[in-house]
Every structure is written in structure tokens, then in C-alpha cells.
């Protein structure tokens, strides 16, 4: 079974694939060693780690190189968050997908948020063309179509379902609707969308078991772990510069263990 086939098989309604998103090779290796069956990147965490803001500002070269580094570091399938596809046109999105597949990715996320212009989301025909180009670039890649209706205040259940069905018809395999954690709303989405549903979780969100009960197939933590890691950095600096103490470092993975994780069989 290829990584792409394995990754596809992990998407089961009511038995969610849990993805604790990584942003570099070390965080990916830690996730794998802790038992993650697959590794997903967070576009925000990746961009931040490379000195860029999230939101189509990074560019494909650095993003694809990071995917290749993570794939080389872990043995489980890797799915890459490629934001809007790192391209102004569908053809450019297809080129990005071909490069990500060549880097070894088993899946991608492609979002419909529009970061430049007056509208919060791309028009449905435009996004469908981009997803179709991604599908044309790889028959086996798992394409997760992210719909930002809830994140950007651009629609509710009806708009989300309409977009989801159009995106699945255009070639997507699954749908990611971040920003909604109301289980009654999620149940409506599951019932109306003929494909695996991915949701985003954060502190205070329903548990994985609760998401499973309403039929969710994938739960992602997004940029949350990267945010928590950078918060530890800030606390450590503030404590060391202020009180002159170091308690913020407590609970870290020790040097020897983390260093050993980076050793791969030759």
C-alpha cells in the first residue's frame, strides 16, 4: 500500500483521523514517535518558522522544500497545507501540487480564502477550477478542500454545503471546515456533505470522541501546537529577563531523547 492509499484509508466517518499539526522536521518526528498515524503540516506554523506571515505570503519554493524535509524525516504519510495552492492561476496550482507530490506528500489542503481583494472567499467557479487542476496533477493524492465560511464570517450551513458539494464534484476527496465546533451544526454538515468532514479543534472544543459521535472523519489542531510552542519561548524570555529564573523550561523533552529522535536508520 502506498502512502497515498494508506492516508486515504484513514478517513472514516465516526472514527476520526487525529492530526496534531507539525511545522518542521523535528515537530513531525516528535508527532510520529508519540504515535501519530500521519503528519499534517500547518501553513501558519511553517510560514512563521521560515520568517513569513501566514496567508499566501511564503511562496512555493520554501514550502515545498519543507515538505520534502518532513517526508524524509518520518515514515508515516504526510499531508501538506499549501494554503491557496501558491499560484495565481489554476495551472500554477497544478504545478505546485505536482511539486508537492514529487516531494512525497500523500495529501494536501487547499483553502478558498481570498487574501487579496474585497471578497473574503474565492468565487466557487474559480475555486473549482483550482481544485480540478490539483486533481489533474495527481490522481491519487488526497485533496482536502478547506472552506473558510465560518473562519471568515462568509456563510453558514447552506453556503458551506453548497461549496462542499461543488468542490467534491471538482475533484476534492474531503472537506475541511475550520471555525465551527457546535456539534449540532457539524452533524448537519456531515449529513449533507458526501465526503469525509475535517474540523479544527482548540482548547474548549468538543473531544475527539464527541466529534466522532456526529460523524467527523478528521480532527486537526492546526496552528495551535506551534502557537503553544512559541508561547513557551516568550514565557522563557520574559522570565529569564525579569525574575532571572527558568521555570518555563520545565516539562521539555530532554536533549538526549530529542537528539535520538533525529537519528534515522542509514
Features:
alpha/beta, 45% helix, 11 helices, TIM Barrel
Strands side by side in the biggest sheet: 1-8-7-6-5-4-3-2
Counting structural domains, the number is: 1
Low-confidence stretches: none
Q: Major sheet: size, sense and barrel closure? A: 8 strands, parallel
Shape, per Cα inertia axes: globular
The name of the CATH topology is: TIM Barrel
* CATH superfamily label: Phosphoenolpyruvate-binding domains
Radius of gyration from the alpha-carbon trace, in angstroms: 18 Å
What report would you give on this structure?
- It contains eleven helices and eight strands.
- It is an alpha/beta fold.
- The protein has one domain (3-222): TIM Barrel (Alpha-Beta Barrel), CATH 3.20.20.60.
- The chain has an eight-stranded parallel β-sheet with strand order 1-8-7-6-5-4-3-2.
- Helix 6 packs parallel to helix 7.
- The protein is globular.
- The model has no long low-confidence stretch (mean pLDDT 96).
Summarize the structure.
The protein is α/β, with parallel strands linked by helices and 266 residues long. It has helices at residues 3-9, 25-33, 43-49, 60-73, 90-102, 124-137, 157-170, 183-192, 208-213, 224-241, 255-261, and strands at residues 17-19, 39-40, 78-81, 107-111, 142-146, 174-176, 197-200, 218-220. The protein has an 8-stranded parallel sheet with strand order 1-8-7-6-5-4-3-2.
Q: What's the topology here?
A:
Elements: H1 3-9, E1 17-19, H2 25-33, E2 39-40, H3 43-49, H4 60-73, E3 78-81, H5 90-102, E4 107-111, H6 124-137, E5 142-146, H7 157-170, E6 174-176, H8 183-192, E7 197-200, H9 208-213, E8 218-220, H10 224-241, H11 255-261
Parallel strand pairs: 1-8, 2-3, 3-4, 4-5, 5-6, 6-7, 7-8
Amino acid at each position: 500500500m502506498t502512502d497515498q492509499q494508506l492516508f486515504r484509508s484513514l478517513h472514516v466517518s465516526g472514527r476520526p483521523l487525529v492530526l496534531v499539526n507539525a511545522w518542521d522536521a523535528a515537530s513531525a518526528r516528535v508527532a510520529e514517535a508519540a504515535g501519530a498515524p500521519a503528519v499534517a503540516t500547518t501553513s501558519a506554523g511553517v510560514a512563521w518558522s521560515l520568517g513569513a506571515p501566514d496567508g499566501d505570503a511564503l511562496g512555493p519554493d520554501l514550502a515545498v522544500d519543507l515538505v520534502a524535509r518532513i517526508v524524509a524525516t518520518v515514515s508515516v504519510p504526510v499531508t501538506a497545507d499549501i494554503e491557496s495552492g501558491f499560484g495565481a492561476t489554476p495551472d500554477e496550482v497544478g504545478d505546485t501540487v505536482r511539486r508537492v507530490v514529487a516531494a512525497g506528500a500523500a495529501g494536501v489542503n487547499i483553502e478558498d480564502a481570498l487574501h487579496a481583494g474585497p471578497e473574503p472567499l474565492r468565487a466557487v467557479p474559480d475555486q473549482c477550477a483550482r481544485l480540478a487542476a490539483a486533481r489533474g496533477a495527481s490522481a491519487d493524492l488526497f485533496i482536502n478542500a478547506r472552506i473558510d465560511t465560518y473562519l471568515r464570517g462568509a456563510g453558514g450551513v447552506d453556503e458551506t454545503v453548497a461549496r462542499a458539494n461543488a468542490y467534491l464534484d471538482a475533484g476534492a476527496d474531503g472537506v475541511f471546515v475550520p471555525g465551527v465546533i457546535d456539534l449540532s451544526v457539524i452533524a448537519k454538515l456531515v449529513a449533507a456533505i458526501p465526503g469525509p468532514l475535517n474540523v479544527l479543534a482548540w482548547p474548549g472544543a468538543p473531544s475527539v470522541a464527541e466529534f466522532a459521535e456526529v460523524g467527523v472523519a478528521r480532527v486537526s489542531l492546526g496552528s495551535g501546537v506551534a502557537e503553544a510552542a512559541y508561547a513557551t519561548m516568550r514565557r522563557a524570555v520574559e522570565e529569564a529577563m525579569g525574575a532571572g529564573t527558568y521555570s518555563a523550561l520545565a516539562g521539555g523533552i530532554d536533549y538526549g531523547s530529542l537528539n535520538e529522535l533525529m537519528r534515522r536508520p542509514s
